[in-house]
Write a structure and sequence with these properties.
By secondary structure, this protein is mainly beta. 11% of the residues lie in helices and 44% in strands. A six-stranded antiparallel beta barrel has the order 1-2-3-6-5-4.
């Protein structure tokens, strides 16, 4: 299920991603809700992931990406650009556009992608 609208080279990587779809605040009885999923491929400005539940297009979420090598966690902000049912009808694919944002690890993310591309 390729999405050919990306301009950058994609890397097939299965990173664990935690998407904070609901934040908690003091006195909130509902608490925080995290959606845990895996990336299918990544690029400097985007992530394609497989998720169990659909997400609203245009929504902006904080997320944490667990990089396996080297082992580290990167905190990013991303917008849901598209959502499509998976071929096997078990979940969805989602396209996330990573934002340039203060107080995130966007520069480390871009370095990680550049390092991975240089090894190919």
């Amino acid at each position: 299920m390729p999405d050919n609208s990306r301009q950058e080279t994609r890397l097939p990587q299965a990173q664990t991603i935690f998407i904070e779809v609901r934040s908690s605040y003091p006195g909130d009885s509902g608490g925080c809700r995290l959606l845990v999923c895996n990336s299918v491929d990544v690029s400097a400005n985007g992530i394609r992931a497989r998720i169990d539940d659909g997400l609203p297009i245009g929504a902006i979420y904080p997320l944490c990406v667990e990089i396996h090598e080297p082992a580290e966690r990167l905190f990013l902000v991303a917008e849901v650009k598209w959502v499509r049912p998976a071929e096997d009808n078990d979940g969805y694919y989602v396209g996330l556009a990573v934002f340039e944002s203060d107080d995130t690890d966007i520069e480390r993310w871009k370095r990680h992608i550049a390092d991975q591309l240089s090894r190919q």
